[in-house]
Amino acid sequence: MAPIAAKDWLEHHNGRTAQDCVVRLAGLSHAVLPTDKAFSELIAEQIKADVLTLAFNARKFMERRKDKRATVATDPLWPPSQCAAPTQNLWELFGLIIHADVLEVVWETPDLTPNPYPDREPQFAAAIEVISRKGLSKIPIGAIIASFIGPVLNSSNFEKQ
Predict the structure, then answer these.
(1) Total domain count for the chain?
(2) Which letter does DSSP use for residue 82 in this model?
(3) Which domain holds residue 53?
(4) Which stretches of the chain are assigned E, i.e. beta strand?
């Protein structure tokens, strides 16, 4: 992924910060890990921080590009989450995250045979559970990643280097 070529510094900062979060989220959310409470909590804290930072900066980036029409993509990465995004508009999805009262990571168990961790169950961070005034929503992390990388970065008004 090439760095974002922006028209101004703020657009560059928001876009670059969002890109950095997407890269970390892709690695953290699609790695199959052994169940370990302390390790899971450490990863969950990083994922929550990156999801919130991504939502804020991606929305600001979209706002500066005057394009709030991006849709939520499906998760192309393995292992996919079993849940679907609660809305098809990426702007609204980021709004749910930004205005959340509670953010929690939803762990899922992949169907792996043989189990790579003989004494523990395998798991991966599949989604973010958002509790807000609008209720409870589960948002697949891979869909957030795919939505920002695809529709937002590859939009027609994206300046390529």
Answers:
(1) 1
(2) S
(3) 9-152
(4) 33-34, 102-108, 122-132, 135-140
| Residue in this structure with the two tokens 């939502």, named with its chain if needed | 55
User: Is 17 inside a domain boundary?
Assistant: yes
- Taking Cα atoms as reference points, which of 44, 26, 32 lies closest to residue 110? 32
Token pair 């928001």 is found at 14
pLDDT digits (tens, 9 = 90+) for 35-64: 999 999 999 999 999 999 999 999 998 898
Q: Average pLDDT over the chain, rounded to whole?
A: 85
How far apart are alpha carbons 145 and 22 in whole angstroms?
6
Residue 14: CB atoms within 10 A of its CB come to 22
pLDDT digits (tens, 9 = 90+) for 126-159: 999 999 998 999 999 998 888 888 756 665 344 4
Amino acid at 46: Q
What does the block give as tokens for 103? Answer: 């953010």
Whether residue 1 lies inside any domain: the answer is: no
The answer as to whether 2 is a domain residue is no
Going by their DSSP bridges, the two strands 135-140 and 33-34 should be labelled as unpaired
Helix (H) or strand (E) holding 38: helix 37-64
